[in-house]
TrEMBL record:
PANTHER family: C-REACTIVE PROTEIN, C-REACTIVE PROTEIN-RELATED. InterPro entries: ConA-like_dom_sf, Pentaxin_CS, Pentraxin_domain, PTX_dom. The keyword DNA-binding does not apply. Homopentamer. Pentaxin (or pentraxin) have a discoid arrangement of 5 non-covalently bound subunits. It comes from the Eukaryota. PROSITE patterns: PTX_1, PTX_2. Gene3D superfamilies: 2.60.120.200. This is Pentraxin family member. The gene is Ptx2.
Length: 202
């Protein structure tokens, strides 16, 4: 149980990462991924990387610079311009729906304009899911200068699009529906220099 805990990625740049294990029974036609990050990096870095053997950027949350997020599905991406962070925790949720190709992006409990991405696509179920690195091959192929350095917490993956109420609940750390990946019962393996610590503040 990682309640009120964080992963601290201590080094910059880093070869460390955390492998997450999700019970995916079938391919995803909808999903939502949420997480909270705290970093002072200004270089590009990966937050959440979900790769299949066919597509290394099957799902990717990537921050190329402090005022931009990229959300990838099936190797294609949409860009969200955001205010440069005040060196504080940033909570992001990204959801996608195959039927409409609608991508939603929420930052700190507020929605950004919806965008179109990969309508009709299906996300593969046999996946390597990593925090802290961006995969260029299944489970590997890392570029250290895309690595994450800082703190990560509250990582979730659902096989549905969350309602606006639940998006806000995720930001506020309230009760959430059952998920494929749940921070409070996370199955994970640390690879390299990552330390689990208590959160410094709420």
């Amino acid at each position: 149980d990682l309640y009120r805990k964080v992963f601290v990625f201590r080094k910059d740049p880093s070869d460390a990462y955390v492998v997450l294990r999700a019970r995916l029974e079938q391919p995803l036609h909808n999903f939502t991924v949420c997480l909270r990050s705290y970093t002072d990096l200004s270089r590009p870095h990966s937050l959440f990387s979900y790769a299949t053997k066919a597509q290394d950027n099957e799902i990717l949350l990537f921050k190329p610079k402090p005022e931009e997020y990229r959300f990838y599905v099936g190797g294609k991406f949409v860009t969200y311009r955001v205010p440069e962070g005040r060196r504080d925790w940033e909570h992001v949720c990204a959801s996608w729906e195959s039927a409409t190709g609608i991508a939603e992006f929420w930052l700190n409990g507020k929605p950004w304009p919806r965008k179109g991405l990969q309508r009709g696509y299906t996300v593969g179920a046999t996946a390597a899911i990593l925090l802290g690195q961006e995969q260029d091959s299944f489970g590997g192929g890392f570029d250290l200068y895309n690595s994450f350095s800082g703190e990560l917490t509250d990582v979730y993956l659902w096989d549905t699009g969350l309602s606006p109420d639940k998006m806000r609940a995720a930001f506020l750390s309230l009760r959430l529906p059952p998920a494929l990946l749940t921070w409070k019962s996370l199955s994970y393996e640390v690879k390299g220099d990552v330390v689990v610590k208590s959160r410094l503040r709420e």
